[in-house]
Amino acid sequence: MARKAGSIVLDRLRDRILLGRYFGCWRPGDRLPSVREIARLEAVDRKTAAAAYRRLHREGLVDVEPRSGVYLKGESREDGGDPLLRLHRQWLEQTLNTATELGLSSTAVTRMLQAVSAVEERRIPVVDDDAEHAALMARELAERSGLECAACRAAQLPAEAGPLKDAPFVVATPSVSVKMRPLQRQLPMVRATLSPALLQEVERKARRGEVVVVVGTDGLARELEQAVNHGLAGPQGRVRVLRPRGVAELDALRAAGTPYLLWPGVPDWVLERLDQEGQPARRPLMADETLREIRHQVARAALDYFSRSNGAGVRPTTAGSPR
């Protein structure tokens, strides 16, 4: 008789939980009525109610936690212990949910991603008057964005030829972008900026005394000297910019005992001679803002391609070129 009563309580409790979940009364993780409450509602002893919960725990419907309570169990979302796989799943779920909210079909999402891939196949010109500095920027932007970035000088950029052929947009330093204003009517332009942490580090050092900033290109040396002259790197007269030509200059710097900072992009032979842990040389050269703007322009170009092609599998054309 007791066994029959236990079976009845088990079936009623299972139905109660399943109906409660179906009608939204409980969600996974919610605390369910206690053993005492179930015993009172079903007019049975606590031992019978506890046994019913233990059975439902074995069935995978609830979690029974001693001294805590009984909780509705959710669906298992195991990713094999792989954190990267878990992040990929979360991204995919968010993408599908957002697409559904916007009324986009999975086919449209697939074609948009194909459009992004088509845009990313295009070479992105990275422009500065100093070819070496343009190369430094292009190398880092390629590593951080996954795009193919090509360093070039403004003089190399006729509107419809050379490095601009099929480019979806251009990355240029602010001073060069001013010279290229006519080009902006044909191609979007990302103004490349350096990480503000670099100059902030120079300023911190300068407030404590003299500091030498060692750089790797002539163009950067000129620009940094101008920033110093405009008071953007701390107190006047405390910052000196050094573009070394040989190890003798570095040995003299070390012998003088003046604090120094190594700017990102200095040659390897400079690093080997002067490298210090925690120097700016180990930090990113480009600002995160520049990377965000590049991603924005990739998305813009992909959507433009998607709209013009209506999802057809054609290659994107350059903005401003004949359609």
Classify the helix fraction into a percent range.
40-55%
Mean pLDDT: 85
Would you tell me which CATH topology of the largest domain applies? Rossmann fold
Tally of alpha and pi helices:
12
The strand line-up of the biggest sheet is 4-3-5-6
Given the C-alpha coordinates, what overall shape results?
elongated
What share of residues are in beta strands?
5-15%
Descriptors:
323 residues, elongated, 3 domains, alpha/beta, Rossmann fold, disordered C terminus, four-stranded parallel sheet, 11% strand, Arc Repressor Mutant, subunit A
Describe this protein's structure.
By secondary structure, the chain is an alpha/beta fold. It folds into three domains: 2-72, Winged helix-like DNA-binding domain superfamily/Winged helix DNA-binding domain (Arc Repressor Mutant, subunit A); 116-193 and 288-309, Rossmann fold, CATH 3.40.50; 196-282. Helix content is 50%, strand content 11%. The protein is built from twelve helices and nine strands. A four-stranded parallel sheet has the order 4-3-5-6. The protein has a three-stranded parallel sheet with strand order 8-7-9, with helices on one face. Helix 7 links the parallel strand 5 and strand 6. The longest helix has 22 residues, at 288-309. Residues 311-323 have low confidence and may be disordered.
